[in-house]
Amino acid sequence: MSGETTLTLRRPLTQRVDASTVAWDALRGLDVAAIEAQEVWVEGSGRARLGDLFEVTAVPGERVRLVGDLARIDGIGAGLAGGMLVLEGDAGSYVGLGMRGGSIEIKGRAGPQAGGALPGAKRGMTGGEIVVRGSAGPGAGTGLRRGLIAVQGDAAEGAGRAMLAGTIVVFGAVGAEPGLWSKRGSVVALGAVTPPTTYRYACTYRPSYLPVTLGYLKRRYGCPVTPDHLSGLYRRYSGDLAELGAGEILVWIP
Amino acid sequence: MDIRGVAIEDTFAEAFTMRVARVVITARSPRWVREAALKMTGFATSVIGCKCEAGIECELAPDETPDGRPGVSVLLLTMSKDDLPVRLIERIGQTVLTCPTTACFDGLPEAPDRIGVGSALRLFGDGFQGSKMVGGRRFWRIPVMEGEFLVEEKFGLQKGIGGGNFLILATSADAALAAAEAAVDAMAGLPGVILPFPGGVVRSGSKVGSRRTKGMIASTNDAYCPTLRAVTATALPDSVNSVLEIVLDGVDVPAISRAMRAGIDAACRDGVVGITAGNYGGKLGPHHFHLRQIMGADGPAR
Hints:
The complex is a heterodimer. By secondary structure, chain A is mainly beta. Chain A has one domain (64-252). Chain A has 4 helices and 16 strands. In chain A, the strands form 2 sheets. Chain A has a 12-stranded mixed beta sheet. In chain A, strand 3 and strand 4 form a beta hairpin. The radius of gyration of chain A is 18 Å and the shape is elongated. The N and C termini of chain A lie far apart (42 Å). Chain B is 23% helix and 36% strand. Chain B has 7 helices and 18 strands. In chain B, a hairpin with a 2-residue loop joins strand 1 and strand 2 (6-8). Chain B is elongated and about 65 Å long. At the A-B interface, helix 3 of A face strand 8 and strand 10 of B.
């Protein structure tokens, strides 16, 4: 199916909106009325319909596009299991919360906890792909169980906190304490990074899977992967040694 | 029918249904790709003695491989579905895993039948292995002394064809060899086909069973041995003093037909008297590649 559903923000938001209750995974198969009837929670004024905030056009297909400044909307793409969600602006907190499959492309910046987990949750995203064209807020990929997160800008502190598996690729600078308390999984730093003290240097090498992953990001999403990223050397840090220690931070050597 | 004066006999090659996997091997340089591929496809000429048949299908440019490095595509065939995983695991495990800088990928990702290869080889990692999902495909990272070996978890399996063939009947051994080399060169790199014998050429074509030794599966094809012309029921024209055979395995009938057409055409040259093919009267193999049909028209073999 090549159709596309588009949600265009009617007017700029002045309050935060919790959109984690929207059936994001079902949205691409719904008609306009059903999409407009989806409930969200608006800070200060309570329950509202998606149709109150967005103008909707719907042609069933794999792709759902959100247009406008979405920085005040939290929980976009929560529970997504398939299809493509494209955000034409910034995203609020918890984009891709509990995501299981499909892909989310954020053309602007992502707020805190992109692909992350709610406080106290054992795991965050369990599958799928998130690509952030701008920067990502704190805690991207917290509790990541499986899946791929690519941040083309910088990632703030706490990326990959308590990861269980999966991969986070950051093209820009990586904030403090990436991968802290992780059991497994990979944080790939193509920019500046300081691994936590609970990570230990292992070796400098060419990780065999990285050309596959980076090549995929380049082909599928047009991420700015260079030939030097593909063939270059990486410093491997194992950790978090305060946990299982089967995770890694791979630091590209320019 | 003749091509440039070479007679094309009105006969057919009889081939069998086999099971095939396509293995993509990559490495840091073409040198190590070639080393791994030659080892993996070594001693894999015939299921009669090698348990599988394997060969290099084609070389792959970096933009044709999953990791952007130089690679080759290898086809490996077995007679039974159950045998294919065993052969793949032992050969990839012993020849690709061990070879510096290589990685190993499934070349039939669309095939519905999947067999666990990386999922078995990962155990070599002794608990230190890890997996990665990329684009819906799972890969295993196995730590090795050199660094890390990457192998895809599952490989596709599909029906293939083994035993496509043609025989080059020549006036001398030199002429037969030159024609065989020309045929192999013409078929090199054609998609979906391998030539599992040394250099793609067989000098010891066989017949089923043996005159003398009970239980022997195959023995020399005396009807085509020039030295036995005077003492056996020979199939050779008077002027023929040497015969070489080209054996082809492939993924489907069109691939083998296409390669046979290219190979036979190249083999029709000075010193070659005729082209024929090996069969068992059509009773054993379901795939019949009629030489004149292949060379004369685009009609399919049956």
